[in-house]
Amino acid sequence: MQAAELLVSLHAQRTLMVVDPFFAMANSVREIRGSLAEKAIASELFTDFQPDPTDQNVLAGAACFSMFAADSIIAIGGGSALDVAKMIGVAAGNPGPISQFQGYHRVSIPGPPLVAVPTTAGTGSEATKVAVITDTARNVKMMILDAKLMPTAAVVDYELTFSMPKPLTAHVGVDALTHGIEAYVSRKANSLTDPVALSCISKIHANLRAAWSDAGNEKAREAMSLAALQGGLAFTNSSVCLVHGMSRPLGLMFHLPHGLSNSVLLPTVTRFSWQGAKARYAEIARAIELVSGKSSDELACESLAAWLDQLNEDLQVPRLRDCCGGDLEKFRATLPKMAADALESGSPQNNPVVPAATEIVELFELAW
Ligand SMILES: [Fe+2]
Fold first, then answer.
1. Is the pTM of the predicted complex or chain greater than 0.70?
2. CB-side exposure of 106: number of CA atoms within 13 Å?
């Protein structure tokens, strides 16, 4: 197996396998563990973490890493497995609370070699210097960004994504689409990330519906895995923006998976944001041929937003109200904190239109 060969090349002798609990009994994990043993690499399994992993999960994993005297990590799973694995490596070498790493470039000592094996086509965490970890004391999803979080190597194998159920395919697929779009319209967009972001968006436009309706569609699954990787590469060298800024507190407050909380916000936030970067959003719409090359920027932008609405409908993504219990008054009571947390994350400041807290509240209500 390629993952074992990579670990040999990284001089690994004892590897902590951080594996999504859903995959713990999977044949693929057994095979990887067997191939590690064949290469004389001892391995220990760590699966004790939740979706939207917490600082407690990280500390438990770091204790496991130290107890096993591991020298390397292999992460197998979706964004949660990859993110928790990144921070387990950091926590093992940097004592203290995980909250010390929140924000930008706060990691002193890099973690051990990390091989990332994504099993969903969404977060692109295998190619990013970002981890999102919940601080249980403050009930905040911390965005941790540091070049030292970039995995040493990634094995992107679309065959691992065949087992994703339809809703997960939809939500992580729209998450990857959000990475492509936000990387392209971000104030930090640049000529290196632009073509990667557009390629990501085009692949998703052409393949997400097919991957969703036919789980075994190899061509569509392969394209989606590549698109997710490109989305990660693009946004980690540009940035995410307002959708992600609002999505993190929303997901935390209502226990929504990351992809779902992005999906329910993407069309509404796009309609708000294109006013600040019409030409950029219009280029996206033209690149995927939603409109002709001669159409106005306004028509192209509106076509893009309409396509995002239609995509959510086709993929049976629920409305925000259906994800949050349907009680608008209860939802409204959460909005000031969610708006403040969104702004504090720094992501909305990269948006083409930088919103005030009151505008974020309005956007949540519009998406309802
Ligand atoms: Fe994301």
1. yes
2. 18
Element (H, E) at 59: helix 55-67
Residues near ligand 1 ion, CB 5 Å cutoff: 175
Give 176 Cα–ligand 1 centroid separation in angstroms: 7
Q: Say how many Å lie between the CA of residue 110 and the centre of ligand 1.
A: 23
| Residue 45 contacts residue 17 (beta carbons within 8 Å) | yes
Q: Give a three-class secondary structure readout of 255-310.
A: CCCHHHHHHHHHHHHHHHHHHHCHHHHHHHHHHCCCCCCCCCHHHHHHHHHHHHHH
Query: How far does the centroid of ligand 1 lie from the alpha carbon of residue 257, in Å?
Result: 10
Closest among 71, 113, 111 to 88, alpha carbons compared: 111
Distance CA 141, CA 160 (A): 28
178 Cα to the center of ligand 1, angstroms: 7
Q: Which of 34, 141, 153 is nearest to 85 (CA)?
A: 153
Tens of pLDDT, residue by residue over 30-74, are 999 999 999 999 999 999 999 999 999 999 999 999 999 999 999
Task: For residues 149-170, give the mean pLDDT.
Answer: 96
The answer to whether 242 and 274 have CB atoms below 8 angstroms apart is no
Which pLDDT belongs to residue 180? 98
